[in-house]
Amino acid sequence: MKQDSQTRLIHAPRKAPQLISSIQPPLYRASTIIFNNTDALFNRHWSDEYDYSYGTHGTPTTFTLGDNIAQLEGGLYHLLAPSGLSAINLVNSCFLSQGDEVWVADNIYGPNMEHLRNLEKRYGITVKVYNPIEIETFQPTDNAKLIWLEAAGSVTLEFPDLTGLVKKAQAHNMVTVLDNTWGAGLAFNAFDFGHEHLSVDITVHALTKYPSGGGDILMGSVVTRDKVLHNQLFRAHALQGISVSGDDVAQVQRSLASMQLRYEHQSQSCLTILDWLKQQTELIQVLHPADSDSAGHPYWKEICRQAHSAGLVSVIFDSKYTIQDIRNFCDSLSLFKLGFSWGGPVSLVMLYNLNDMRVLQHSHLKDGLLVRFCIGLEHPKDLIQDIQHALEQMKKLKHE
Ligand SMILES: Cc1ncc(COP(=O)(O)O)c(C=O)c1O
């Protein structure tokens, strides 16, 4: 039957051959998945990840990346979300119901805490905060349902007693969830700490950081080894319509090949810069889990691979430096760009006021304004020069 050119443009005759190899897997973009016949339609099982039925339930492209992330982290089952925060919210909305108690580390990623506070107000769950390096502050009641762990924690980078916290949570039948973004599946195995084969139940990973590596794509993952937990998450994920773009997934998949090399390089550069920062008199505290003076260092040493400590380091300025001085410092940097996030090629800087960020008292943190550096892929000697120049500028403007 002769067809109109408009129809022929849509139903192109060429089909990809079955057996063709390329370095990167083929990219599937799909909302609609075409069933071969009505048998396939009526016998579909949407909870079976290899029984493709609709774009939101996954495509070979999303499952390829998910499998890679799960394997990297030591998990079995996976889901992708459009951002790390969306992955966090999926876990919270899936497991927390009215009357439940959720425990959160005081140094958890800020928007996670904010999201939980919102759930607390609207849905009657109780949010309790613990000090990640003082396990006695974690006192679950019979209503305790879920604990959020982060290693190392956001901004102040304390490394928690993961083993102790997980043991205690398990004794209360709580679901243990780790924000695994810092370790990225490389620094330690969240599904086997090496001690008594202890493991968290679920990891959440902001793939926006190291897996993407470009500073240009947002994505998150949720991984577990527990089929029952995964089934609950899978259903919530599908019903909430959480989905990622195939093009974005393909970009992250492409970056995975260099992820470990980048992570090791950024870890090493960060340690070089850390050594230099510790000599600077304007700074009264340097925070990095691999530094023996930092809170939680023994826990870091216990479970982490020494060459893998990420590219984040925070510093506290002497309290004689005002917010204006710190702003002058940040504005004088040239290689370090002022921006949120980390794990990309460009080094970043961000300033924080700890008084606005913590619920508990933390005696290990000195009084002063905090700046976090995210080390990119530039040469560390150039980055040190950049910081040195900005410190000098800051002091010149203060007439020191
Ligand atoms: C520790 C941590 N978890 C989760 C997120 C959220 O990731 P996203 O920016 O993809 O929402 C971030 C982002 O900065 C983070 O630092």
TrEMBL record:
It holds the Pfam family Cys_Met_Meta_PP. Its cofactor is pyridoxal 5'-phosphate. Keywords: Lyase, Pyridoxal phosphate, Transferase. This is PLP-dependent transferase. InterPro entries: Cys/Met-Metab_PyrdxlP-dep_enz (IPR000277), Cys_b_lyase_bac (IPR006233), PyrdxlP-dep_Trfase (IPR015424), PyrdxlP-dep_Trfase_major (IPR015421), PyrdxlP-dep_Trfase_small (IPR015422). It comes from Acinetobacter pecorum. Belongs to the trans-sulfuration enzymes family. It comes from the Bacteria. GO terms for molecular function: transferase activity. It catalyses: L,L-cystathionine + H2O = L-homocysteine + pyruvate + NH4(+).
